[in-house]
Amino acid sequence: MQAYQLPPRDLATVLRTLGTTFNQMSMWWGGGSDLVLLAGPEPRRFSLKSLEAEFERNADLRDKLADILSIDEPAGLLGYFLLNDSALRKMAALGDINTDDRTVLEYRMPYNLARQTSEVNHKEIRRRRQETVPSFLKLSDRKTAVLAGAETQIRSGMLYFPLGAPLAQEVLNDTPESERILLLQANLALKQRRFLPAIHYLKRARKHAPRNAEVFFMLGKAYLEQGQHQPARRALEHCLQLSPGHLEALRALGGLEMQAGRLGRALELQKRVLAAKPRPIYGEWAKLGNLYLLTGQTDKALEALKRSLELEPLGYLARSTLAQHFADSGQTRKAMEELRFLIQYYPALDANFYLKLHELYLKVGDEAAARKILTKAKRIFPFDNRVQWRF
Questions:
Q1: What is the pTM of this model?
Q2: Best label site of 26, 101, 173, 232, fewest CB within 10 Å?
């Protein structure tokens, strides 16, 4: 359910109505302004054992939990927990009961469409939070589970919302210094753009764990954010010595090499990114195609871009790279085709597509089409001086 366009009384009404049917409820964060309500007919106790077994067995599950939910181990799921049944029922007491013959939510909803209620609902949820982990969950090692949940809260960006990141605060207040705690502190500092403290924590973590690739990746990331390219390069190279397939380090170092004009090295790193089989992979093929073009390997570039579009026909980077290549190489008709595609599917993304297509229409003598595309550009980009001047 959403926390937006739903005043606290209506949120309480949803909870109270749900509570008339179910005897066990819990609320979890769904990301952004979304909430997840779990409910069952009878109170039950749960453990993480079945999830742990599946997590160990299923590589696809591990990848999806990490990529989508920022969860690196099953206990990290605790980072999304918000409220237990008792807290939800106290919150529900402020609401009504919505029924087929008393549809209060339906009548009130039109008045709420323009209301921004996410922040007030998040603050109310935070105020009512009594426990940081679900009371119905059996944990064999609470301290380790809480640490995993804290890491999820930092990585998922939960601390940027009024909901806060209570597990992270609990861990940082009560847990003695260790490699994992220092990484958590560094991650939090990076999220808050406090780069000097982040570097300080990471240097201390390096002493605890000189062979932990993640420490060196985060150190490289912190140096990059500060514009210190040489120490960033050294840290990222060291990360890749320890973990040759570290995807984010490969991407970061590749971007750094491309920025420095070392295109051959950037191309090599991009091939290693593809070898790591990231998800989604179509964008990585497009990046490879772009690097092939920049290094003058046109045939390989077109093959890589074709591969990208086979995986995702709407791929923006592949389409825009092809449009630029066709325009630069004098293949006007093909460039126009790609530009029309980009304008159709990404109409408000870049005024340059319209301006370039306008030039190409004039080049082939189609003045009517040139006027039409410029008129459309003026409508979509009314404050872009380039468009207004051209018009």
A1: 0.78
A2: 101
